[in-house]
Known about the structure:
The complex is a heterotrimer.
Chain A: H1 3-35, H2 42-62, H3 65-68, H4 70-97, H5 105-127, E1 132-133, E2 142-145, E3 148-151, H6 152-174, H7 176-186, H8 188-193, H9 198-224, E4 226-227, H10 232-246, H11 251-271, H12 277-291
Antiparallel strand pairs in A: 1-4, 2-3
Chain B: H1 2-22, E1 25-32, H2 39-56, E2 64-71, H3 76-88, E3 93-96, H4 100-113, E4 116-119, E5 135-137, H5 142-156, E6 161-166, H6 170-186, E7 190-196, H7 205-214, E8 218-222, H8 225-237, E9 243-246, H9 253-259, E10 267-270, H10 277-290, H11 297-316, H12 321-330, E11 333-335, E12 338-340, E13 353-358, E14 361-367, E15 372-373
Parallel strand pairs in B: 1-2, 1-3, 3-4, 4-5, 6-7, 6-8, 8-9, 9-10
Antiparallel strand pairs in B: 10-13, 11-12, 13-14, 14-15
Chain C: H1 2-25, H2 33-60, H3 70-80, H4 83-100, H5 103-128, H6 137-154, H7 158-180, H8 185-205, H9 207-210, E1 216-217, E2 223-230, E3 233-240, H10 244-267, H11 269-279, H12 281-286, H13 291-317, E4 319-320, H14 327-340, H15 345-361, H16 369-383, H17 392-400
Antiparallel strand pairs in C: 1-4, 2-3
Amino acid sequence: MDLSSFLLQQIINAVFLGSIYSLIALGYTMVYGIIELINFAHGELFTAGAFIGVIVLTALQQMGFVETHFVLTMIIVFVMSMSYVAVLGVAVEHVAYKPLRTSSRLSALLSALGMSIFLSNGMMLSQGVSDRAYPQVFGIEGIEFMGARITNGQIFIIILAVALMVGLQLFVHRTRLGKAMRATAQNKTMARILGIDIDQTIRITFMIGPALGAAAGVMVGLHYGAVRFDMGFIFMIKAFAAAILGGIGSIPGAMLGGLIIGTIEVMWAAFLPSAWKDVTTFTVLIMVLYFKPSGLLGEGTTEVRV
Amino acid sequence: MKKAGIIVLCLTLILGFQSMALAKTLKIGTLSPLTGPYAQDGTDILQGVKTAVAVYGALKGYDKVEVVPGDSACDGGKATMAANKLINSGVNVIIGAYCSSATEPAQIPIMDAGIVQITPASTNERLTAKGYKYFFRMPPRDDVQAWSTVQFLEKKLKAKTIALIDDKQTYTAGLTANIEKFAKEKNIVKVIAHEYITPGDSDFTAVLTKLKRINPDVIYMSVYQPEGSKMIQQARKLDMSSTFLSEDAVFHPKFLEVAGKNAEGVYLTFAKAPETPERDEFVQTYMKMWNAKAVGSYAYYAYDAGMMALAAIEKASTADADKLQQTIRDNTWTGVSGDISFDEHGDRKIAHIVWLVKDNKFVPFWDPITGKDL
Amino acid sequence: MIQKELKKLVVYGAFLVIILTPMLGFRSTTFEPGRVLKILGIFMTILVLNIVVKFIRSQKKDDGRKKTPWTEVVRKRINRYPKVYTLGGLLALAFAFPMFADNYMIDVGITCLIYVCLGLGLNIVVGLCGLLDLGYIAFYAVGAYTYSLLNLTFGLSFWAALPLGIVLGMVVGCIIGYPTLKMRGDYLAIVTLGFGEIVRLVLNNWDSLTAGPNGLFGMKRPALYYPSFGEDGFTWVTYYLKSLPSLYYFILLIAILTIIGVRRLDNSRIGRAWIAIREDEVAAELSGVPTTWIKLLAYALGAGFASVAGAFFAAKLSYTNPNFFLFMESCIVLCIVVLGGVGSIPGIVVAAFVLIAAPEVFRGLENFRMLAFGGIMTTMMILKPEGLIPASRRRRELRADQEPPPKD
Lengths: 306, 374, 408
């Protein structure tokens, strides 16, 4: 393997990992944009999506559906998992965040953290402590070029991730609901005066954000082959770093941030001592927050204390 | 409501006193992580011991044998608490713990209390190097496993270069450190890279691509099963040509289940599985008793530890720790993981053999002591 | 009203069915309806009971009598006696505890007291100063490792290493605190979480210093020195605190000192400055509070208390390992502070005992412990954000202005 194909392979690795981080980061950024709260439970919603994915996919595989209708299977799996997590997201919002919308930030944050611990342990109790294996529908076949390799599954996942992100961007900018969301994010009082149903908008945000996370969860399961109740934590931290790096509240920022965090992680492990990979991610996060708290693409948020 | 409560109270009291007055119970304590990420292995251990008690049946001199579970949670503080609880409940033997980092602190109160402790899983060398006379260990030490690995690399695979991957936990890092030491001493196999991953992570492609570029003969995965099964899949997806070798923490039915056909051709070091009728019987009983699809790796050791403890108590006809440890030391016991005898440190005279994944099954492949194929 | 509640019940029920069915029903590949129905039944019973309670309450509302909550009743009962008696009684109980408890109970007691120290330390940062810290356990790790390393490499005794540990903990506290000074609550949470992980990863990766994941072993226990006049004249005799009761008394002493220290700080000028910052940083700054220094001081002092607890923890186990300092531990300490009542010393002491001892007592619930943690945290924030035993000052604040806090 010469240097150029090595680099290319690492770039593929980075883009793949980065696009998953981006999808998860979108959930954070959307929720934060609208109610200015870190949704700590997002990592668990992502895991829940992965679990629904494995449940549906296994059931379909047992029926022998996967071989005959591959595309349909994928659509069913993704739609089921995303809609389930959308429902779960709304429930979490209703139980844990809505009653605290007017209280102090500390309480809301602690409530979110509590929800995260609750969900992750709930999944542990209901789905067991060990891995659940994903049916390997993609296999290891792939394309090889210039000495680098990308599998069919990876291509599918990257395309799907990009499609979801483009769809989100269109939704936010072209539709009425999307515009309502942006208006709410900018100024809640003003939006209310203009006749936007704030509760409704927040609920929709809590459907879309976690649903994207669920899609990422299914992708992780499909590619890495297993899900476990506690896998949300590491993805949560990385995706959160991505959201902040891109500028929290900014949707293109989250996409860019995800790619950058993925690249930093992969390239650090590729060229420098891999033991310090995570230290680097955290350090980058802290540096960004210190030097440019608004992130790369964020609008210069003012330091308002709530 | 109140009446019902009083009746229940009376009943429990009566039953409680009855059992106290009549039965002479032997208590076996277990210490294993029943919560947290290693709860699967911890439960295997508890179930293994319980199976042993059920299979052994009546013990001479005792009316009842009771298993007292303790949760070490793979955490030093919790493990000492659980150990103290077991000591207070008057256990005669303790089987546990799982993580070396929990066994090490828990050893202190147990040894001070003078109770025989048999670990079915902890392999750190330091545990038996302190001169505790009541401490025994069922699996081979880290350095023994590392020695077997290096033997296998030199004699069987005839490898020239090896790359190590570990996830920087007590057990995994201990293994790679030992392999590096032995490889350096013998100077036949060269360690050309040592990479690290984060436990709980999913994506290891960066590190694997790095190793694909160096292209060592063998890549040694010193990780636990969740990471191991993900790593081997990614290695196959990267189309790596190196041979993969791993250790007993990956040797788990889940590894085959998750990695599927990607696991083909992976070598693993793990304990011998002697083909004795007792072993088959144990597997059958265990699966029936716990409604399990497969027997967890540490259940064998836990079962053996339980059976040996009970047999030794019967032979010594006392549960007194001094006599019991002498009896355990002086005799050779048969178990489902092979014959059991201990050296002066309390380490078992045993070495791992090398297994190969073939047709989605673990098959014995090579014995490092005899140097012969199996 | 009934109709509205019933409609709610149906909606919630539908949500619960959707959420619980796949997660509980498909543990393996086959569907098991039994588990779903069981858990669903529990949840639905709770919802129905909730409605019944609400209904009964709405019927009773006409009494016009305001019921005092039970915490108030308890408080009044306790306050009837002079404080000296209550405190003295509690102290006597704490001192007498090892005489009737077995080793296991003492060990649980020691762990509880360690968490009391940690909770009180975190209380300075979160409760008094209002800075959310999710990486607090890092200071505990610093304390543990400082003592371990100093004892193992230089043979320093516990007493000599303790001040060094405190100083190092405070320095690390300032290092972590400094970049976060400008940040707002939620950014702060993430940065401290990141720092906590960095500290653990550094301890795990720096093999040459900390022995990495192997952990450090063989630290001496804390010792007492007393003079002895033997045949060869005057000598100092070293008595290592090896038995659990002696360790218990030792940590009890530390905990009492911590309580006194935090209480004195709370009532001091600095404490008032912290609370001013918590309530309104800009106003505090304008009133002449040097916010930068005061916030750094909060971090440093909080870290100092944690590193004392850490040093004791390492000495007690005579073993440390980076895996003892996971993010979950920070969460548990935070949960203690929140449950007990942010800023309330008796609340934190009670909460530490409840959270640490309760799962030990109800061993069968061990698996549900973290689930309950999470549930309690969210429920507390929604229903009773001031905690089990609210801080007296906080209570007075809440009483003084009954109007809700300003929005946005």
